[in-house]
Specification:
It is a single chain. The protein is α+β, with helices and mostly antiparallel strands. The chain is about 15% helix and about 35% strand. It has 2 helices and 8 strands, in the order αββββββαββ. The longest helix has 21 residues. About 10% of the residues have low confidence.
Length: about 160
């Protein structure tokens, strides 16, 4: 009888281990389409966050980030938005922050009061009225292949 229960326990543990290791990791591609660039100078810098800590400014809190030269990656159709794709991100909730790094220093430059002097934008067109946008306003769900449009905003 002990052998029988021992075998049942072994089979149960083995199936639990196998099911945990066989669980699929669902991934998808995230394409960010940027509209409203005022020039082809410099880069568009993207930061993808999976939670509110560090959003939208902390590079180290971003899941992934990239600065892409505008002139080297223009779409063939001049009416098409500038686009960049992040591949193989885990399915889940994300927020995206971008800025037009017009001088190529890979930083969002700010004036004396901390207000950006370069263009910026957020997923869901999250508002940034009296400070940076909140992750909760920028969040979206990434499934298989997701496209997120972002309208670039420039200081007045």
């Amino acid at each position: 009888m002990v052998k029988k229960w021992g075998m049942v326990a072994l089979l149960a543990a083995g199936s639990f281990w196998f099911s945990g290791n066989a669980r699929a990791q669902f991934t998808g591609n995230l394409t960010v389409e940027v509209s409203g660039l005022q020039s082809q100078e410099g880069n568009v810098c993207f930061k993808v966050f999976s939670g509110s800590p560090g959003f939208p400014n902390d590079n180290d809190s971003a899941v992934t980030r990239a600065c892409v030269a505008i002139a080297d990656n223009l779409p063939e159709d001049p009416e098409a938005p500038f686009a960049y794709t992040f591949e193989d991100l885990e399915a889940g909730s994300y927020g995206v922050a971008i800025y037009h790094d017009s001088n190529g220093d890979e930083q969002l430059n700010r004036g004396a009061l901390g207000i950006p002097v370069e263009g910026y934008g957020f997923s869901n067109d999250a508002p940034a009225v009296t400070g940076p946008a909140r992750f909760e306003d920028a969040v979206f769900f990434l499934g298989n292949n997701t496209t997120v449009p972002i309208q670039m905003r420039y200081p007045q």
